[in-house]
Design goal:
Strand order of the largest sheet: 15-16-17-18-12-21-24
Radius of gyration: 23 Å
Strand content: 25-35%
Distance between the termini: 21 Å
Number of strands: 24
Number of helices: 9
Shape: elongated
């Protein structure tokens, strides 16, 4: 992982502390002492990250012969128009434009700065550079950090994305099957039960973002909790799976599995059906309040986990419920009989959006879920519910 806080919260001191870790340049990290005078070459570096796995450029840092930061870490003289200069370079030299996040980290005296540029993995590849319209990918090799992809070989880059999509489907399907396999080992079955699966993962996974051996520590640090529950309770042992680990909870008859994968996948799957007395009769129910609590804990945990992995690319989110027909959906005093056989919502998100707009994301998903389950929720009620869940969680 690179930084342990959102990009916009980074300070001059944070960058100094990061440089002292002496991480070398690689597939997702590049140091520049000054904004290069050769603007097309700088654009090539940005585009190569976007065409590959995304990455971070730190301006104001010299590197040594081993591609590690070289002290002293003093940054460069402050220039108020540096952000505009970088944005102009991207617009002039890269087609289609790469959308980046830029933070200018100024020291306490206001006379020196570091510039941290986060380039997300792009879903608009290939990004071409300069008049020659060449595409580059980041290799991480010190002798050749960017490799050219000639125009006649651009289909290879597109095929690389298709392979990533296939890998995403494989990772998702395997994670989904683990919950059912666990129930079978317990001589249980989800047949006839309503199972809710929530997941988020890189839109274009390519390779592990961490060593699977590091997952226990990352999972423990990512675990979010609230008075209404814990998503990945550390008191339960981890169940190793290929390239990942799962936390299984069967506390008080609540069966839930939350899986974390080295490729950046987080999936929580659980049985949410409840037996309640509704209008004097026993009925299988699903409560929007419970969905809100589960979804809040999931999003907070996934956000922490992905932040630790320093993943800046596009994310694929899915919310899915099966066996919903004839359930009684409840929200406060409102109730409805569900007509849908199943419910599924897909979203493209980013870690930046999850950090800056999480309440709005939760409200949007929950309102659509409640509506699809036959209710007609008031936006103010959903907003208040989300606010309560977020306030109580940590």
């Amino acid at each position: 992982m690179f930084f342990d806080k959102p990009l916009n919260d980074l300070t001059f001191h944070d960058v100094v502390q990061f440089c002292r870790r002496e991480l070398p340049e690689g597939k997702q990290l590049d140091y520049k002492y000054m904004l290069p005078k050769n603007h097309e070459k700088f654009a090539k570096t940005i585009a190569s990250f976007a065409n590959a796995m995304g990455g971070t450029i730190i301006i104001g840092v010299q590197d040594d012969k081993n591609d590690k930061p070289r002290p002293p870490f003093l940054g460069i003289p402050y220039h108020e128009k540096i952000r505009n200069s970088i944005e102009d370079i991207i617009q002039v030299y890269i087609d289609p434009i790469v959308f980046v996040d830029i933070n200018v980290c100024v020291n306490d005296r206001g006379d020196r700065m570091f510039i941290v540029i986060n380039i997300p993995q792009s879903n608009l590849t290939p990004h071409l550079v300069g008049k020659s319209k060449r595409a580059y990918i980041r290799t991480g090799q010190s002798s050749r950090p960017e490799a050219i992809v000639h125009p006649e070989k651009l289909p290879w880059l597109l095929d690389h994305r298709r392979k990533s999509e296939r890998l995403r489907h494989i990772l998702y399907d395997k994670a989904e099957s683990h919950f059912d396999n666990y129930l079978k080992t317990m001589n249980l079955s989800s047949d006839g039960q309503t199972v809710c699966a929530v997941s988020v993962m890189p839109l274009y996974p390519q390779e592990p973002l961490t060593d699977y051996k590091q997952l226990p520590g990352l999972i423990h640090a990512a675990c979010s909790r609230a008075p209404y529950g814990i998503l990945a309770d550390p008191q339960f042992p981890l169940q190793p799976v290929q390239d990942g680990a799962a936390v299984i909870s069967n506390k008080r008859g609540l069966y839930r599995m939350t899986e974390f994968n080295a490729y950046g996948l987080v999936m929580s799957k659980q049985i949410i059906t409840q037996e309640e007395i509704v209008n004097g009769h026993a009925a299988k129910t699903v409560r929007i309040e419970q969905l809100a609590q589960n979804l809040t804990l999931f999003m907070l945990t996934a956000r922490k986990f992905l932040t630790q992995l320093s993943f800046g690319g596009p994310l694929y989110f899915r919310f899915k419920m099966n066996n919903t027909r004839a359930l009684r959906a409840l929200l406060g005093r409102s109730q409805a009989t569900v007509l849908e056989d199943y419910l599924r919502m897909d979203r493209n998100l980013s870690l930046t959006e999850m950090e800056a707009h999480l309440p709005e994301i939760l409200e949007n998903i929950l309102h659509e879920a409640a509506w699809s389950l036959g209710l007609q929720p008031q936006e103010a009620d959903i907003k208040a519910l989300v606010q309560t869940c977020l306030t109580e969680a940590r």
